[in-house]
Design a protein that fits this description.
A: 247 residues, alpha/beta, 7-stranded parallel β-sheet, 7 strands, 39% helix, globular, B: 77 residues, mainly alpha, 53% helix
Chain lengths: 247, 77
C-alpha cells in the first residue's frame, strides 16, 4: 500500500518513553512499522510502554541520561539509527521570584542539556547516517508564548528551538533536524497539584479547538518528521496548539 | 510558627496592597491584587519558608489567611 509516512525499516530511539508524549510516540512509531528503542528512568513504566509496542521490538534501556556514563553507554550500545526523538522533559512550576539555582539546573539539564549531549554523542559515534531525522519535542512556551510559573521551562524550550536551527544547518544535507511545538497536552506534567482542575478548565476555554492536545496527536507530527514524507523539511517547528496562539 | 510570621510572609508577595491590610481574617481572594500568579506565589512561599506543599485546591478551599495558616501548620514536620 502507498504510504509515504511509513516507518518500516527504520530504527528510532525515543527518550522519555516511560510516560506522556514520549510513551505515545514510541507506541505510534511501532504501529507505523518502526523498530523502536525506548529509554527512560523508571523501569516499571518503561516496561509497560514496551509491552504496548506493536511488533517484535528491541529491549528497552533504563538510563538516567543526566548521568554522563548512562548517556555514553546508551549511545555506544544502540544500533545505527534512522531517527532520534528527544522527548524527556519536565517542569517545576514556580513564579520567577522563587526559582532557585537548583530548579534552574534541573530544568535546563533535563530539557536542554540532555537532549543536546545525547544528540552530540550519537552523532559523534556515527550512529546516524544519510536520510536520518532528529526531532526535539519543544513547546509553544518559550517560542511564541509563556505562562505563569513557567519562565525557566520556557527558557529551556526556547533554547531547544535555537539549537535546532544550528544543528539543522550543521548536519545538513545528511541529517534533518526539526521540532514539534505543542500547546498544552494531557499528560502528568502538572500532576503536583499547584494548578487546580478549575484553573485547567478555564485554560482549556482559551483554546479555539476547545481542548488540550492528546499525546498521540504530537506523535503523528513526529511520525511525519521521522518519515521520508518530510525529506525536504529541516530546521522547522511544527505547531500543534488547537489554535491557541491565534488569539 | 506564629501566625504573624505567616501573615507577614503572605503580605510580602503583594506589591500594591498595603501590609496593614493583612490580618488573620483577611479574605485574600477578594483583594484587588489577587491573581493566579499570587496563588502560585503563596504556594512557593509556603514551600520555601515552611517546607510545606500547599496545593491549588487548598487555596481554593481557603477563605481567610487563617484558613491557609491552619493548612500549613497541619502539614509542618
Amino acid at each position: 500500500m502507498y504510504n509515504p509516512f511509513s516507518l518500516e525499516n527504520k530504527t528510532i530511539l525515543v527518550t522519555g518513553a516511560s510516560s506522556g508524549i514520549g510513551k505515545a510516540i514510541a507506541i505510534e512509531c511501532s504501529k507505523m512499522g518502526a523498530q523502536v528503542i525506548i529509554t527512560g528512568r523508571n523501569e516499571t513504566r518503561l516496561k509497560e510502554t514496551h509491552s504496548l509496542l506493536t511488533g517484535e521490538q528491541p529491549d528497552y534501556v533504563v538510563a538516567d541520561l543526566s548521568n554522563k556514563e548512562d548517556l555514553n553507554s546508551l549511545s555506544k550500545s544502540i544500533p545505527n539509527l534512522n531517527g532520534l526523538v528527544n522527548c524527556a522533559g519536565l517542569t517545576i512550576p514556580k513564579p520567577f521570584k522563587f526559582v532557585t539555582q537548583d530548579d534552574f539546573k534541573t530544568i535546563m539539564d533535563i530539557n536542554f542539556e540532555v537532549p543536546l549531549f545525547l544528540t552530540q554523542s550519537i552523532i559523534k559515534s556515527k550512529k546516524m547516517g544519510k536520510g536520518s531525522s532528529i526531532v526535539f519535542i519543544s513547546s509553544i512556551s518559550g517560542v511564541s508564548v509563556s505562562y505563569i510559573a513557567g519562565s525557566i521551562y520556557s527558557a529551556s524550550k526556547g533554547a531547544i528551538n535555537g539549537i535546532c536551527k544550528g544543528l539543522a544547518l550543521e548536519l545538513a544535507p545528511n541529517i534533518r533536524v526539526n521540532t514539534v511545538i505543542p500547546g498544552m497536552v494531557v499528560t502528568n506534567i502538572l500532576s503536583e497539584g499547584q494548578i487546580t482542575d478549575e484553573q485547567l478548565e478555564e485554560d482549556i476555554k482559551r483554546y479555539p479547538l476547545k481542548r488540550y492536545g492528546k499525546p498521540e496527536e504530537v506523535a503523528f507530527a513526529v511520525i511525519y518528521l521521522l518519515s521520508d514524507a518530510s525529506s525536504w523539511t529541516t530546521g522547522s517547528n511544527i505547531l500543534l496548539d488547537g489554535g491557541y496562539t491565534l488569539l | 510558627m506564629e501566625i504573624n510570621d505567616f501573615i507577614s510572609n503572605f503580605a510580602a508577595q503583594f506589591d500594591e496592597t498595603d501590609a496593614s491590610e493583612f490580618t488573620a481574617n483577611t479574605e485574600f481572594k477578594s483583594l484587588e491584587e489577587w491573581s493566579s500568579l499570587m496563588s502560585l506565589s503563596i504556594i512557593a512561599m509556603a514551600d520555601e519558608e515552611y517546607a510545606v506543599k500547599v496545593k491549588g485546591d487548598d487555596i481554593k478551599n481557603a477563605t481567610t489567611i487563617q484558613d491557609l495558616f491552619d493548612v500549613v501548620v497541619s502539614r509542618m514536620n
